[in-house]
Each structure stands twice: as structure tokens, then as C-alpha cells.
Amino acid sequence: MFLSEDLDPEELKNEANIKWGKGEIEDANTLWSQALKQCIKYSMRGYPTKKNRDMQLSLRLNLSLYHLKKKEYVDCINQCNIILDNIVNVNDMFSYYENNIDSEEGTCEATETGEGKETDRDAEEDCATDSGRYIVKRDTLIKIFLRRATSFLCLHDFDKCGDNISLVRKLDPQNGEALTLERKMKLEEIDYERKQREMYRKMYQARTHTQSTEDEMNEITPKGETAGGPVGSEPCEVCEDREVHEVG
Length: 248
Fold this sequence. Notes:
The protein is mainly alpha-helical. Among the domains are: 1-71; 87-99 and 136-216. The chain is 65% helix and 2% strand. The protein has ten helices and two strands; from the N terminus they run H-H-H-H-H-H-H-H-H-E-E-H. It has a two-stranded antiparallel sheet with strand order 1-2. Strand 1 (225-226) and strand 2 form a beta hairpin. Helix 2 (25-44) packs antiparallel against helix 3 (50-69), helix 3 (50-69) runs parallel beside helix 7 and helix 7 (138-154) packs antiparallel against helix 8 (158-171). Keywords: Repeat, TPR repeat.
């Protein structure tokens, strides 16, 4: 039971889901954040119930979706990590789902793409927990890894993106989103490496050009004089106006 001065996290969450469904994502994020604070406050009073735990998991899933949609990739990853860190038997759960691929089908009707488009405003509530063997459904676990993979891809961390895609493939070998994301990752990695090589080539050319210019100036400057003229004289206007090559 919540004290009179507290806000009911469930009511806040439901209101936020409605806001999200209407496209009012900032208001939804504010309400989800308030609901999470209330849950944490309630837990700190020494009453960590299953309902409270499940609510926090669901809220963090929603917040991760918000951050993904807002392209706040580090925050999305952090929310996903917190969820996984607070699942005590996460390794056992992963192994169970990996070894029982067909044990859970149709547990989550709505899915969201790697771009963060939610097809059902209540999807997180429906997919967050399971009353069966483990507290998190297979589909929810897949969703967490997909969101991390998408975020790492957008941050150009291809190794971690690939690691999370591999986790999804272990849970669902034919997962369409994972396959699409993997192809996208390979293409973007090739393009990223090409751009990196081009950038380093331009930097090398710039340094070479600067060194050549300095060598030329040293060759044409008589002993006892500076590049601006005889020692003690004013710099010449030509040297003052000389353009300096910079990397674009």
C-alpha cells in the first residue's frame, strides 16, 4: 500500500502509456520517470514486492524505448544494462531459453523495430514479465538485446553491436530484426572504415604539405634572415598573407 502523499506508480504508468500512444512522448517520459522514482522510494522503505520489481522492469523498458526514439543511445544502453544487472538468474534464464527455443511462442503480440517504433502503447506492460519459470519473457530479453545492438550500431561500436546480435540469434536464430540489423551493421562498418581511411589520408597529406612548405622556406631564406626578411626587419606582406593549409 502506498502512503497518502505518494503517487501510484501504476496510475502514472498507465497515464504515460496513453500519452505515448498519442505521440506525446515527452509527457510519457516524464510520467514514466516519476513512476520509477515512486517505485524506488517504495523499495527503499523495505517493502520490495514482486509487483514493485515487475513495475520497475516495465518502466525501464519504456524508458529505454524513449531514449532510443530520441537517439539518446547511451541512456538507452544504460537502462537496458540496469534491467539485466537486476535479474539475479539472468545467465540461467538465458541458457534455459537458448536450449528451449520452441518452449515459448506467441508470448508477446506487439513488437517494435530496431528504430524504436512501438506498435502497441501497452506492449511493454504485456511483455515485461512472466508468471512462469523466469520473471522476464524470452521476447522481452530479445527486445533488450536488440535495443542495445541498435544503440551500439548508432555509436559505431560494431563489436558490441555484433555481440548483442549474437545473443539475439542464440535465443531466436531466425529473428528477422537481428538479421536485418546484422546486414546493416556490416554495410555501415565498411563505410565507416572507408571514411576513417579517407580522413587519415587527408591528415597525412596535410602534414606532408606543411613539412614541404617549411622545407622550401628554409631553402630560400638566406643565413641570418628570418622568413619575414633580415633580422630586425618588419615581416613582409607576402608572408603575412600566406595561406596555411588546414584539414577540412
